[in-house]
């Protein structure tokens, strides 16, 4: 049977339609300060044309804003479960989204054993890359093209606000924007490596969330951790996948 | 004899000409990414017309950028000494500048016994008020006029970056800008109270640095600490005063 999982993040809303272990449909849109409407769109898109409405599980910060879901679950449990489907042997999951980051530890059975969460400081989240990219007149989507093979220029400030000023003064000192951007990604990757190490660096390590699409970031994170960093084309949907899996279990139990 | 103390901060450059315990001249200008030139201007202004050049002591983050000073001293020792001249009975000093904040503990003789420093996170510094004021189309200088007698609207985010987004969404939800600004000041005052409490809340407490000029902030800080918060018209010059005092000692010892 079909189930739907929707992950209402503060930056993007992600949803999937799942059948067994197969993702049948994907939905992704910017949340843009209208989380409830974004969840509604995701739901209509994912259930469209199905004979009966699939079991709907919501997760993410906006999950309590609508009342038509069958179930609501916290992000951490969904992410652990979703990661397991994407990479069954994963033991550590680092998820870096637009406005938070988390690291999750899984045991050999894939059960969640511990986690760390940051949603207080923009510096460890996608927002950092966003702000700095905009300051340099580009977008996160172009970071890989711009920084490929570029030697990173060192960045001193870790605070997003102070880094923004530093980047402006590096630019006026004539440092090339691509070297600054590579330096910014490198500084954030180093910080993320420390964040992961606070919990666990046991491999295999799966990298999920929006920032996982940045190949330069992933390469630098692997260098700082001195270990392989796996990702998956559907890495941004890990939370939604986990939510849909929880729906499957629930259905089996009751149905 | 005259001595000069110059405090080269990352936001403003402050300088004074001292004779005995009397501040004879004051100099203040925005550092604006040209710390060396700002120190030069301060020096020329403060020594102008004096028969012989006064002993010059530099402090602050830019103190090593020029080579014409007689002495260079770290900010913490200067701030402690300067605070003592402004309020001899002070036992705790909280200094909130444009890009850092520090709390200093003094013993009964006014000697520095301990301190805490933050220059890593913009949220605890004047930069926070700056960013949010600009977001709401005003300037830090007008915060007192705007927020006088205004009930603060609660603010959830402590990170400067997340607070900026929160403020924008509060505005579009129709919350009055003055209530938002009062809420922003209140949130930062609460944070500063926690910062102070990590070291010492023994009174009398002297509040120095640029942010000390914000009366609303001082009132809210006093409320969170549940104790009186003193300031001084020359509170922004505490570091420079301390530097000039160190120059006096040096001269006495050697001359
Ligand atoms: S102001 Fe800077 S260091 Fe502080 S919480 Fe925000 S991003 Fe992090």
TrEMBL record, chains A, B:
It comes from the Bacteria. Its cofactor is [4Fe-4S] cluster. Pfam families: BcrAD_BadFG (PF01869). One of its GO terms (molecular function) is metal ion binding. Keywords: Iron, Iron-sulfur, Metal-binding. InterPro entries: ATPase_BadF, ATPase_NBD, CoA_E_activase_dom, Dehydratase_Activator_Redct. Residues 4-247 form the ATPase BadF/BadG/BcrA/BcrD type domain. Gene3D superfamilies: 3.30.420.40. This is CoA-substrate-specific enzyme activase, putative. The lineage of its organism: Bacteria, Pseudomonadati, Pseudomonadota, Gammaproteobacteria, Enterobacterales.
